[in-house]
Amino acid sequence: MIAMFFWAFVIGGLICVIGQLMMDLGSLTPGHTLSILVSAGAVMAGFDLYDPLIDFAGAGATIPITSFGNSLVTGAMQEAEKHGVVGVLTGMFEVTSSGISAAIVFGFIGALFFKPKG
Description:
- The protein is mainly alpha-helical.
- It has one domain.
- The protein has helices spanning about 1-25, 30-45, 50-55, 60, 65-85, 85-115.
- The N and C termini lie far apart (about 45 Å).
């Protein structure tokens, strides 16, 4: 069990370090870094490399933003098998809708209780 926590920490940390290095050394904006990491997760899912990473690292691979790309591609591929081209479009939204909805709701609740500084 300790090994599971260790590898989740290491893999999740490495993904975050890669993103931080992209911004610090590559002079990329956070938006560019976010897009690249989501795309990297999507490409890894397309080549069936992300699920083994999830099996190995658990939350270390499912929590970082790369997992969002994985979810988009996985949902699209599953629905494409069932419904064809239309499934590609609906599958992405079906799998990720709960996470996006939660982000919107919690962001709104946070905005109600806290004032931005600036």
